[in-house]
From TrEMBL:
This is PDZ domain-containing protein. Residues 5-86 form the PDZ domain. The lineage of its organism: Eukaryota, Metazoa, Spiralia, Lophotrochozoa, Platyhelminthes. Residues 115-125 have a biased composition (Basic and acidic residues). Residues 98-125 are annotated as: Disordered. InterPro entries: PDZ (IPR001478), PDZ_sf (IPR036034). It holds the Pfam family PDZ.
Length: 125
């Protein structure tokens, strides 16, 4: 069983400083990049981390828009977001290559969507 840990991120200047992909086939939400000087990096979030939950809410089966809403809600209520994450290596049953359905950059509480060349939603917030 994978070890999970909590990462508490307090945005700086409205920015969390990380992006994630959601793979609906594998039912995972994975951190794809972390801004080296950003709030997420300072909190210990790393590319490859699998986000299991936000606060007490599991991400299993949620859409990108629902994940964004959870982050927005946590930020407006608490001024921070609490992620339960596990490392990619801890989920050895998953293949190394992930075909992403959606990529989202976490920057502020206002969503921005643009088309992605692989017919994916690419969002920033």
């Amino acid at each position: 069983m994978a070890n999970h840990r909590l990462v508490v991120i307090k945005p700086r200047n409205g920015l969390y400083g990380f992006t994630f992909d959601q793979d609906t086939a594998l039912r995972i939400t994975q951190v794809t990049s972390v801004l080296p000087s950003g709030a997420a990096a300072q909190a210990g979030l790393e590319p490859g981390h699998i986000i299991q939950s936000i606060g007490d809410t599991s991400l299993d089966g949620l859409t990108v828009h629902q994940v964004q809403s959870l982050i927005d809600d946590a930020t407006s209520r608490l001024g921070e977001v609490v992620l339960q994450v596990s490392s990619r290596e801890e989920l050895s049953c998953l293949p190394r290559a992930v075909t992403s359905d959606t990529t989202t950059a976490v920057e502020d509480s206002q969503p921005y969507f643009d088309s992605h060349p692989r017919s994916s939603d690419h969002g920033k917030f």
